[in-house]
Amino acid sequence: MTFPLETERLMFRDWTATDLEPFHSLCADPSVMEFVGDGAPWSRERTEQFIGCAREMSRTLGFCRWPVIYKPSSAVIGFCGFVPASEGAEIGWRLAKDSWGQGLATEAARAVLKHGFETLGFQRIVATVQSPNRASIRVVEKLGMKAESSFFRNGREVILFSISREI
Ligand SMILES: CC(C)(COP(=O)(O)OP(=O)(O)OC[C@H]1O[C@@H](n2cnc3c(N)ncnc32)[C@H](O)[C@@H]1OP(=O)(O)O)[C@@H](O)C(=O)NCCC(=O)NCCS
């Protein structure tokens, strides 16, 4: 699949200046951030920093945590994408609450995972999920990722999932 990526309902592209407002509104929502980091909603500066890092990563590495655009409304509803990890990359996702429960994270992650293996050439893709985050664990399972280990980060239990490229 070529970039920008598209699925039936979603599109992924590089970040633009107008993405800050819609993306920040979901990062400032406590229910979205419950199982992210230490659980605190982000300040505008933190969201700006995230977008700045993603743009730099896209420029230097050719991948990042891309904005997810919901095609029917052209709205930015979250992100899905990669950061570098040993032997490959770590996949992650975050969607606005009013987009949950429609299979959108799974649709996004399947396309991004395929892009990671087939176009970016990753051999192994991992995901880290806080253990009470049942929705995210379900997404990971639907992608065919397997739990490998667990550890503590920010005083919270995190499960490491992985999937390797089919040879
Ligand atoms: C995790 C997240 C991206 C999932 O988005 P989504 O579009 O609702 O996900 P999907 O609809 O593709 O799949 C969710 C699955 O979890 C299930 N699920 C949702 N809440 C659940 C819960 N509390 N307990 C068990 N399963 C749950 C759904 O039923 C669905 O599974 P199914 O298809 O077998 O029915 C979204 O909840 C989110 O953005 N959360 C906040 C940010 C976050 O936690 N990011 C991940 C950090 S690792």
What's the short story on this structure?
The chain is an alpha+beta fold and 167 residues long.
**Overall average residue pLDDT:** 96
| CATH class identity | Alpha Beta
Radius of gyration: 15 Å
Query: Can you write the helix and strand succession as a string?
Result: EEHHHEEEHEHEE
Please identify, by name, the CATH architecture.
Answer: 3-Layer(aba) Sandwich
What do we call the CATH homologous superfamily?
Gcn5-related N-acetyltransferase (GNAT)
Strand content: 25-35%
Q: Per the principal axes of the C-alpha atoms, what is the gross shape?
A: globular
End-to-end separation in angstroms reads 18 Å
**Uncertain stretches:** none
Tally of alpha and pi helices: 5
Would you tell me the structural class of the helices and strands? Answer: alpha+beta
CATH topology: Aminopeptidase
The helix content, as a percent range, equals 25-40%
Hetero groups: coenzyme A
* Number of domain units: 1
| Major sheet size, sense and barrel closure | 8 strands, mixed
